[in-house]
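Section 5.1 Outputs to date
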Amino acid sequence: QVQFVESGGGLVQAGGSLRLSCAASLNTFSGRHMAWYRQSPGKQRDLVAAITTGGTTDYTDSVKGRFTISRDNTKKAVFLQMNSLKPEDTARYYCNTRTAPYNWGQGTQVTVSS
């Protein structure tokens, strides 16, 4: 069964940084485009950043220049470096494949205080 375990969230002041990690128990990890998503209470889950199998990255406009997604295929892990955090970044963050997502993990909560 495929599982994603996210970690690294926490409470941070505006302007601060966090680094999220995701461990994936996915045998085909190196062959899958991966992504980070986030969801706030009462809102839909949105794509934040994506990375292809070749390392090409893409970001939603609101985080461009502040967030960096990366991956380590040997560890089957995906990372999200978040800098210059803003209160509107507050959400629960999840990782999953970019397309045809598997069951969602528990996510990791990021709270940014003003």
